[in-house]
Design goal:
Blueprint lengths: L1 E7 L6 H11 L4 E8 L5 H8 L4 E3 L6 H8 L5 E5 L7 H6 L4 E5 L14 H9 L4 E8 L9 E8 L6 H28 L1
The chain binds glycinamide ribonucleotide.
Glycinamide ribonucleotide (GAR) binds next to helix 1, strand 5 and helix 6.
Length: about 190
């Protein structure tokens, strides 16, 4: 059984976390170890609790890195879902090649520090792109720098706003993240 923990941010809705959890619930080979959030009132954490998932709170602070590693001790793979910070080095090193993130654009374009949520979609529209999508990539100590593992594409329509584009991309994210996680886990096994 592969144990996966999902780390969410303080403010995220948790829709990718819930989509992952729904798929994982149907998968006999994967289980959720923890949904981890930095604050007890994180909307994504509350959503996880409501869905009956095991949760843990690890507050940002001086001992964040060690506290997180302790909670993750029996976790095999880590998925970031709306976690907008860099992971501490001890976590990146210990779980190297077993940490994924989802990003709402076609990396390497529209990634990096400050590129999250609506900022990404606004930048895609401002650049006049005709295509966008989502990227699942491995996590390193830099923002959005790890190798892209899987992408899914959708059109950018002429009358799109950041909101309408975000909605189209989010639907792709929900369909793609589990597929990528499963393929990454299976790839490592072979
Ligand atoms: C998602 O669109 C995800 O791709 C994005 O934050 C949103 C979280 O939504 N992540 C980034 O922009 C990372 N740079 P959710 O909480 O509903 O899953």
């Amino acid at each position: 059984m592969t144990r996966v923990s999902i780390i969410v941010g303080a403010k995220g809705r948790g829709s990718n976390m819930l989509a992952l959890a729904r798929h994982i619930a149907q998968d006999p080979d994967i289980e959720i170890a923890y949904v981890i959030a930095p604050k007890p009132d994180s909307p994504a954490l509350l959503a996880a609790q409501e869905a009956g998932l095991p949760t843990a709170v690890v507050p940002y602070g001086e001992t964040f890195a060690e506290d997180l590693e302790r909670v993750l001790d029996d976790t095999d793979w880590i998925c970031l879902a709306g976690f907008m910070r860099l992971l501490p080095g001890n976590i990146v090193h210990r779980w190297k090649g077993r940490i994924l993130n989802i990003h709402p654009a076609l990396l390497p374009k529209f990634g990096g520090k400050g590129m999250y949520g609506h900022h990404v979609h606004e930048a895609v529209l401002a650049a006049g792109e005709t295509e966008s999508g989502c990227s699942v990539h491995f996590v390193t100590e830099e923002y959005d720098e790890g190798a892209t593992f899987m992408q899914a594409r959708c059109p950018v329509l002429p009358d799109d706003t950041a909101e309408s584009l975000a909605t189209r991309v989010l639907a792709l994210e929900h369909a793609t993240y589990y597929k990528a996680l499963k393929a990454a886990i299976d790839g490592q096994r072979t």
